[in-house]
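Hey L., structure's done. Input below.
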Amino acid sequence: MTALESSIASVRIAAAAADRMKASDIVAYDVSDLVGITDCMLVASATNERQVLAVAEEIEKDLYTKGGKLKPQGREGIQEAQWILLDYGDFIIHVMHEEARDFYRLERLWRDCPRIDLELPEAADAAADAD
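Output:
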C-alpha cells in the first residue's frame, strides 16, 4: 500500500508553503503501511512561536487556494504555537518549534517509512551541486 497521489501532491503544496515561510528541516513520510488512518505525515520546524503560527497559516492558505479548497478537519496547538497539528484526514501536517521537535523526535516513529520527495528548490540545488 502506498500513499495516494492526491495526498502526496497536497503535502508538496504544504512543503512549498512552509519553505516559502522559511521553515527548516521539512520532511514528509509515506506512513500508509504503518498507520491505517492517514497516508502521509509532514514535519517542519520554526524558530519561534510567531513563525510556527505563520507557517501553519500559510500552509492552510495554500492548501485552500492551490489544493482544491482543502480545509483541515482538525487544528490543534494554535494558542500555544509550540506544535501545530493540521489534520487533513489523508495527510497530517506538524509545524513544530525547534525545541519541541528536538524533544519529541517524531521522525523516529516513521524512520522505517519511505520519505516523500517534496520537490523543494533547495533539494534540487543540492542534487545539482553533487553532480
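Helices lie at 5-20, 49-65, 98-104, 107-110, 121-130. The first helix runs from residue 5 to 20.

-- N.
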